[in-house]
Amino acid sequence: MSPGMIEFFNVVFRFVHVVAAIMWIGDSLLFVWMEINLIKDKDKKDSLGYMNMLHGGGVFFLEKRVLHPDTIPNPLHRFKWQAYTTWLSGFTLLVTTFYTRSGTLLLDPSKSDLLGWQASLISFGSLVLGWVIYDQIWKSPLKHKPALAAAVLFALFLGYANWIDGIFNGRFVYLQLGAMLGTTMAANVFFRIMPGQRKIMQNLMEGKPHDLEIGRQAKLRSMMNHYVTFPVIFLMLSAHFPILYGDDHRLILMTIVVVCLGVIKWMMNCYKSFSEWLHVAIGTFVLGVFAVATVIHLPAWGSDAADQPVLSESAQHGQKLFSTKGCMACHQPVDSSIAPTLNGLYGRERPLESGETVVADEAYLDESIRNSRAKLAAGFAPAMPVFADLLSDEEVADLIEYIKTLK
Question: Nearest CA to 32 among 252, 221, 286, 283?
């Protein structure tokens, strides 16, 4: 298949993935909101709660109730295809976009000398093994202590993140973590929630009573899915946050964001029982932003101020631009198959795709930043955006000053 067709299908599957994810997460947020707002009806022993909703010019009456074999409603709507479509389209993108170019988009050559297929195997195997471990924990006695089970899983999650951070590039570390959470969510639906619902309905059709315990176990898995919706959104959109995944402290930043999003979601769910929920949610947001801003300005791990070159004010501004504009996500300390390194580039000859060579002086760097397709480096695709209209002359000059300091 031609590169153009591959890119076309990537656009199609990405669109399907995003739309399906919106529908799935929207369902999760709506159903949990309804659970929270159900009004108990003491006069109806089979009623688990009811509510009225105004929408579309009319009132929807909703009641959650215990079913009896002779009162099975028809039709009965079930919600599963949003989850399945999200995962299937996401996994398709993972294979076509990343696994087919695993050496390019997964690995960081400065961290590991693994081969591309080995990186893909680690990524895929982690999805499977991650679900198995997750599922076993929720099937263990820990299921009776959800907070403890969640703490154990979070600790394992951070340990795994630290391990893959020594293999993958920062961008894929975030995406892999998001893919693992998304996989456990979809697997919860496929292997636990839907089978539980089918078992309930089968029992009813056989004349057996409505088994609420099966429903509680399915609801537990559904709530676990619900609480990771915000972190999953963040991780799966992380390609837009190079200032975070490109930072040397990316795992600390990820932890701060994930914890803050979890707390905010928790506050949104307990707004009826906790009067200070909004203050806590806003405080969490403010503290989270402050913590992220603080960590971003910390020196790199193992760096010694005495060993660091003294940058001019212009180069310091260029260093910030190099991070915030996403340059550091692709231009790593050593050549990768995504982009060439800029370390030690200034003043040296660079071979071009045209077969010519050019000296990487200030004029070349200026032209390459403004129009990356003007003189393509040999062996690299024209993947870098054109910054001609995105950066001022001063910003381009500051970036060049910083690139000149990279050794």
Answer: 221
pLDDT, one tens digit per residue, over 230-252 is 999 999 998 888 788 888 899 99
Distances (CA, A) of 187 to 19, 90, 129, 132: 19, 14, 12, 10
Are 126 and 51 in a shared domain?
yes
Sign of CA dihedral 191, 194, 200, 206: negative
Q: Is 326 left (phi over 0), alpha (psi -120 to 50) or beta?
A: left
342 shares a domain with 205: no
- Three-state SS for 56? coil
Side-chain half-sphere exposure of 390, counting CA atoms within 13 A = 13
**In a shared domain, residues 152 and 218:** yes
Same domain, yes or no: 211 and 347: no
Which residues lie across from 359 on neighbouring strands? 349
pLDDT tens digits along 182-199: 999 999 999 999 999 999
Amino acid 171: pLDDT: 87
Q: Do 292 and 317 sit in the same domain of this protein? A: no
User: 193 and 53 in one domain?
Assistant: yes
Closest CA to 123 of 104, 96, 95: 95
Which of 332, 351, 337 shows the shortest CA–CA distance to 406? 332
The domain in which residue 79 lies consists of 3-236
Of 92, 227, 80, whose CA–CA distance to 149 is shortest? 227
Rounded to an integer, what is the distance from CA 2 to the centroid of its chain?
29
- Total number of domains constituting the chain: 3
The span from the CA of 315 to the CA of 305, in Å, is 16
**Each residue of 34-50: pLDDT tens digit?**
999 999 998 888 899 99
Which DSSP symbol is given to 391?
A: S
Nearest to 351 by CA among 320, 377, 322, 323: 377
SS3 at position 349: strand
pLDDT of residue 1: 56
Cα–Cα distance measured from residue 144 to residue 216, given in angstroms and rounded to the nearest whole number: 11
**Torsion sign across C-alpha atoms 182, 183, 188, 194:** positive
Please list the ranges in the chain whose pLDDT falls under 50.
305
